[in-house]
Amino acid sequence: MSADEEQLIGHSYTRARRHPLVIGKLPGAGRLPGGPYTITQIVTMVAAFLLLVITRQLWAHFGVMNILVMIVLPWGTAWVLRYARLDGRDPARALRSLLVYASTPAGGRLAGSPQHRSRPRLALATCTVHVRTPARDKPKAVRAAAAMPVAVAPAPTRPARTVPVPTPAAPRRPPARSGLQALLASLDEH
């Protein structure tokens, strides 16, 4: 690397500044074992415990070990969720983002309601073009013909509008030119 080049290094601290809402202490100032826990971990532990209680008849054939399974399995799933990251977010937030994305209409939303694009329509219009030329170089008949408007009608079913032709005023003196304008005009003449 030469002296003219300098290496730019960028640092991002946004992940370190985002602290998730956690539950880590009991009301009596004691710590939860294995804590602190995020809201996602708490919900996962409760849901896994309730699922095990509901399906107890299917799996509970271990005697006293059933209690250990009902404690270790919910805690283990919550512990795995502590380290699981999808695009830098915990799985609950990533799932929520996926559901919001899937439920959004294709055209997006505007003020809370689905936004739809209108169908393209043919625009019919009339355009009048006025051509102006410098008055000093042209004869009077050519100046009058150049000042006449040209009407363009896109559809043959609509009649073309006629625009009254303005009468040419008395010739005016051209405005004074700056040095740059005179130079540009002389280049256009050659």
Structure description:
With 190 residues, the protein is mainly alpha-helical. It is 39% helix and 7% strand. The protein contains 7 helices and 6 strands; from the N terminus they run H-E-E-H-H-H-H-E-E-E-H-E-H. It has helices at 14-17, 39-54, 56-59, 65-83, 91-103, 140-146, 179-189, and strands spanning 22-23, 37-38, 109-110, 113-114, 127-129, 150-152. The strands form 3 sheets. It has a two-stranded antiparallel ribbon. A two-stranded antiparallel ribbon has the order 3-4. Helix 2 (39-54) runs antiparallel to helix 4. It is elongated, with a radius of gyration of 40 Å. The two termini are 53 Å apart. The model has no long low-confidence stretch (mean pLDDT 78).
Cα end-to-end separation = 53 Å
Structural class, by secondary structure, is mainly alpha
Strand content: 5-15%
Number of helical segments with 4 or more residues: 7
Strand order across the largest sheet:
1-2
What is the residue-mean pLDDT, rounded to a whole number?
78
Major sheet size, sense and barrel closure: 2 strands, antiparallel
Element-level helix/strand string: HEEHHHHEEEHEH
- Kindly provide the radius of gyration, computed on alpha-carbon positions and rounded to a whole number of angstroms: 40 Å
Tell me the overall shape: elongated
The total of beta strands comes to 6
Poorly predicted regions are none
Approximate helicity band:
25-40%
